[in-house]
Amino acid sequence: MRIRDLIAARRPFVSLEFFPPKEREAWAGFFDVVERLLPVHPLFVSVTYGAGGSTHAHTLEIVSRLKTAYGLEPMAHLTCVGASREKIRGFLDGLRAAGVDNVLALRGDPPRGQENFVPDSDDFRHASDLVGFIRREYPGLCLGVAGYPECHPEAVSPEADLDFLRQKLALGGDFVVTQLFFDNDCYFRFVEKVRALGIDAPIVPGVLPVMSLASVKRLVGMCGATLPSAYLAELEAADASGGAAAVAKAGIAYATRQAKDLLARGAPGVHLYTLNKAEAVLSIIAGLG
Length: 289
Prior knowledge:
Layout: H1 3-9, E1 13-18, H2 27-37, E2 45-47, H3 56-68, E3 74-79, H4 85-97, E4 102-106, H5 127-137, E5 142-147, H6 158-170, E6 175-178, H7 184-196, E7 203-204, E8 206-207, H8 213-223, H9 229-264, E9 269-273, H10 278-288
Parallel strand pairs: 1-2, 1-9, 2-3, 3-4, 4-5, 5-6, 6-7, 8-9
Helix pairs in contact: 5-6, 9-10
């Protein structure tokens, strides 16, 4: 089914994001995590594409299995990195053959070791190019696009960033999934600005449970998100007193409070970045009641 239709029919909801293991030897453990999270009844599950499209074949196979073997509604991430018309068509044909109806169209991050994004094709320089191509060539697919509550780190201004989002939706995007953030007011201000442009597409907030202090510091530097000073101090105190386990406990508790507040204030649902960690997700869901 198309995710936009599912969102219209069921609120509030939880959806989940997974990343495909690079090595097939790790697939058994990955699908163990999926099975443990089936009782969550996610509205949909997304599977990332890998830096530089490095795991695109795994993404295609995994979303197919999530659909056929587990009865989940999957969404495959697809990026402009390393893209060509033939490669994109091959991937989308595979999705269609597997009965997968949903794609998250992204520009994508530069491959490891490459500081800036360099397009591999003039056809796919921006996420909007990918959205337009998919909508023309595969009109039956439901298209998600990314939104940035705190502005894309490469955008020249917040206004320009909002205009890029408007373009993606005008070209065929059906709904928005946001980049991670840790201050819910950022999300609600973002939604107000988007609505002021006359856009009524669903905007699903992305929530990350922090499991590692070093990882989250690196991640916010890459994606432009802000780590509130009080939360950073809480994580650093947890790390000093109890190490990684204490950081994870604090991160899960914060993500639970964040998700609960988002839903209470009217967000349509929450998209949990699972990090392929079942325990963290189950704890958050239990906290949501």
